[in-house]
Amino acid sequence: MKFKNFMRFAGFGAKTILFRKKKPILGTVIITDKCNLKCKHCSVNNITAIIHPYEKIKKEMTTLYEMGIRILFFCGGETFLWRDGDKTLRDLVIEAKEMGFLIVNVVTNGTFKLDLPEADLILLSLDGDKKDHNTIRGNTYDTIMENIENATSDNICFYMAINQINKNSIMDVCMKAKEMKNVRAVSFNFHTPYPDTTMLALSKEEKAKCCEVIKEAMKLKAPVFNLKSAFPYIIENKFPTPCHQCVVIEDGKISTCGRCIEVEGLCDKCGYFFVAEYTLLFRGNIKIICEMLRTYLKYI
User: Fold this and answer.
1) CATH class name, domain 43-299
2) Cβ–Cβ < 8 Å for 196, 43
């Protein structure tokens, strides 16, 4: 991370903590909910299968920028399916950078060619070892591994949602992140149980065991992009929700924190590590602040 960008984020954090502000800094644009996969844990794919046009997305990016957001994510559906005429996902990333966003990340399932060096991070969904991943996402593991090997930049971060199917594959994913030359880190979430996927949710005891495995991977120098000081809060679901510093915009509609905020009772079962990390950070938790500084400077 550039020093001037770090100082801007540090200033935002200090003001948020001192004055208890709720101004957002991180925004996500849903560019499509169309996806080429039907993953067992996903509740938001192909609801409309609409690919939003470039001008609408550009307008939404402008809206977020004017709100003060400087960290931008492009999400789907599958982001690499996005196209409008001759414009592709790369054009959106470049546009975001030119607009003034300081960090621009993309979330993908990894089944398409990974040629996007302009993105700060490509968060690629890898949901376990080959067996567990393919059980969740279909026969895609080998394709993803090939795409990672052939990627044009080392800006990939594995993004794993831990659930009942893949809870024993955490170490395997950590070691893959450590071994593969184009992978910078791995980031975890616990499954957030939408009403149609409650059977995949983990118990408090299972979450605790998973966190112990992640901590063991950290000791083995796996590049984990999560904060272990947040684990106790995540296990107990005792962190403030929603995260007011994060917003999502989809088809012109802005939601605080995420699309799941409108599902009654789901915030109480939130599995998103970043929500815990950000809400604790902006409440002034000293351990979280110190660990986030070290982690973000290392991996972004």
Assistant:
1) alpha beta
2) yes
